[in-house]
Amino acid sequence: MHVGRPPVLPVDKKLGLVVRVMSGELTAAEAAREAGVSEQSVSNWRRQFIEGGRNGLAGEGGRDTEEASRMAELAKENALLKTTIGELYLELRKYGRSAAVRPPQPRGRVRPGRLVN
After folding, report:
1. CA dist list (Å): 69 to 29, 63, 82
2. At a CB cut-off of 8 Å and minimum separation 6, what does 45 contact?
């Protein structure tokens, strides 16, 4: 019999099993059989659930929403910068064809330190 990695369960399924175990409706072994995973996996989910709740009560739970908010802010700024760069590029192309804007181009071969008439 080949023992492979158990299938990845959706978070809602894990949460449902953990709540049922914590309420006494199921044992960890019963939940493991129902999900097709090891009893250790169910115990790990339970531990993670409790730690997450503890962090939330300690005020650390808001960190993810702050990060998501910052990422959204950065995405908006990035889009604005890309738009600005695009507009500037078009302006440069429009005016870049005139000789007044271009720097003078050297004619012939110029050697450093020699005057060219």
Report:
1. 40, 10, 20
2. 14, 17, 18
Sign of the CA dihedral with 25 first, then 28, 53, and 12 last? negative
Half-sphere CA count of 9, side-chain side, radius 13 A: 19
Q: What are the Cα distances from residue 92, in Å, to 16, 48, 67?
A: 59, 55, 37
Contact 32, 41 (CB under 8 A): yes
The region, left, alpha or beta by phi > 0 then psi within -120 to 50, assigned to residue 115 is: beta
pTM strictly above 0.85? no
Q: 34, exposed or middle or buried, with CB in 10 Å at 0-12, 13-18, 19+? A: middle
Distance CA 62, CA 27 (A): 32
What pLDDT, in 10s, does the model give residues 51-86? Answer: 888 877 777 555 667 788 888 899 999 999 999 999
Tokens describing residue 107:
């004619």
